[in-house]
Amino acid sequence: MTLKHLKIFVAVCETGSVTAAGKKLFIAQPSVSLAVSELENYYGVKLFDRIAKRLHLTEAGKNFLQYATHIVGLFEDMEREIKNFDAKGIIRVGSSITIGNYLLPDYVIRFKELHPQMDVRVTIDNSEKIQEYVLSNKIDIGLIEGAVHSPYIIKHKFRDDELVMICGNEHPFAGKSNIDISMLKDEPFILREEGSAGREIFDSIMTMYGMEITPAWESTSTQAIVRAVRANLGISVLPYLLVKDSLDRKEISRFQVSGISFRRSFSVIHHKNKFLTDSAKDFISLCK
């Protein structure tokens, strides 16, 4: 089995069809089909189901893709490194919005002190997306909040954090520490989008208490949420680090729900098949 077979397989998965993979790789369609068949025969497993003229990855195919993606990626990394041996290296880091805003800049500064020739390329998105980027080898290291959802991801917890309930200063909940959870059901909520770690934690706790919250507003922008809360358009739950300044300036108020703590952890993650360079290991150590 050759690297070419793996590249073809990854291209088919990325494009969704044999024809599109052939165009991407400048290979004739029969050659692509043959490579996939040879892979299936060699490993004795079915990598795709062919349903209604469309390809669907089998469970074996999904498992194989995680290895193939990183083998191909490692080869391409080697090519770039050897061909540009005298040039500076690159480390690709992804981060959740909270960590990216408040912790990542310091980590990058400290990393650059250790590796001044390294170029740090950063992607900021919600935690779900960062995990997807790790799985698809779009980034080398991720910094996320909350739970990891894939057995292919290795995580190292490096810090605890909490979410806080916030409301407008004129809201009846403002400054209270004994709000019963049942009092939340009729409140308009302004929440982060699905896929954010904070939203996931909030939704899971509400479900545990038998409550289903349908937000009046959803936003990827923390600033937009804080402004709406300040205008008394609803209440929200956000990471303390993101609302600390607004709380200190008394633009909004905090309240607590009796018996509930919205605690979570920050983790640095990487794919279990990822080859970690010494510089990547140093970055992980800085976070830990």
Percent in strands: 15-25%
Mean pLDDT over the full residue set: 90
Number of E-state strands:
11
Number of spatially distinct domains = 3
Sequence stretches where pLDDT stays below 50 over 5 or more residues: none
Sheet with the most strands, sense and barrel status: 7 strands, mixed
Structural class given helices, strands, pairing?
A: alpha/beta
Radius of gyration: 23 Å
Helix % is: 40-55%
CATH topology of the largest domain: D-Maltodextrin-Binding Protein, domain 2
CATH class of the largest domain: Alpha Beta
Task: Describe the protein.
By secondary structure, this protein is α/β, with parallel strands linked by helices. The protein folds into three domains: about 80 residues, Winged helix-like DNA-binding domain superfamily/Winged helix DNA-binding domain (Arc Repressor Mutant, subunit A, Orthogonal Bundle), CATH 1.10.10.10; about 90 residues, Periplasmic binding protein-like II (D-Maltodextrin-Binding Protein, domain 2), CATH 3.40.190.10; about 100 residues, 3-Layer(aba) Sandwich (D-Maltodextrin-Binding Protein, domain 2). It contains eleven helices and eleven strands. The strands form three sheets. Strands 3, 4, 5, 6, 9, 10 and 11 form a seven-stranded mixed beta sheet that branches. The two termini are about 40 Å apart. The mean pLDDT is about 90.
